[in-house]
Each structure stands twice: as structure tokens, then as C-alpha cells.
Amino acid sequence: MTRGLGLLDAMIALTILSFGLLALTGLQSRTIARGTEAQSRLLASQFNDELLSRVLVDVANAHCYTLPQVGNCTSPGALASTNAWATTVAAALPPPVSISSTLDAATGQLSVLITWTTHARDGGSTDGDITRHQLAVTDARP
After folding, report:
1. Poorest-confidence range of 3-12, 62-71, 101-110, 121-130?
2. What is the DSSP letter of 58?
3. Is 20 inside a domain boundary?
4. Peptide bond before 96: cis, by omega within 30 degrees of 0?
5. What is the pTM of this model?
6. What is the three-state SS of 60-117?
7. Which one, out of 82, 104, 107, 120, has a CA that is 20 to 30 A from the CA of 17?
């Protein structure tokens, strides 16, 4: 009876080790997913700041930095800059990406909203697509 006891102990230890390694694998995958989500949020924040900075440098053409384009923009450079910025944002964030930029003529505030979708896999109730939003606002009065 004692001859098989060592083998049984080894099998129990191997089973415990296997469950521990599975738990570590799950933890690592959640850590990677959260790191990717943090990177997307950081990128969206940087892109918002970039467009708002462009507007603050070119306040006279603030209406040219709206997306979708509203009104008659007389600055081809500002319009091209805005479109290039939107293309860069759409390529950098997980699709689908939605971008809107609105200028409130009464208050002079420019609002930039970037929306993208991430897929969460936590193995729980949060599985599925999650829509993320990043909003930035600045005063664009001359």
C-alpha cells in the first residue's frame, strides 16, 4: 500500500500545479487586455489634444476643424489638416471609430468626441463589445 503513495502524491501535486498555471494564464490575458485598453484611451486623449492645439494655433479658422465639416471653410490648409488628423485617428484606434468635432458659435467652445469599440473578455458579465468615448473641450474664441 505504501508503494503507490508516492505516485499519488506526485499526481496530486501535478494537478494543483496545473490549476495554478491555468490561473496565471488567465491573469496574464486579462492584464494584456487591460493594457491594450489603457493604450487606446491614451491615444484617444492625445489625438483630442492634438486637434484642440491645432485650433488654438489657428483660432480664426476654428470652424474649419469641425467634423463632419459644417459651413464654408476658406482655409484649405486647415481643412486638409483636419481630414489628415481624422484619417490618423481612424487608423490608430480599434474599429469602428467615430469622430465628431463641433463648434458652439454662442460660447466659442470646440468639443472633440472620439468613440471606438473594444471587445472585453473577462469571462464574466462584461464579455462583449464595449463602446468607449473620449471627449475634450476648449475655448476657441479669437
Report:
1. 121-130
2. T
3. no
4. yes
5. 0.78
6. HHHHHHCECCCCCCCCHHHHHHHHHHHHHHHHHCCCCEEEEEEEECCCCEEEEEEEEE
7. 120
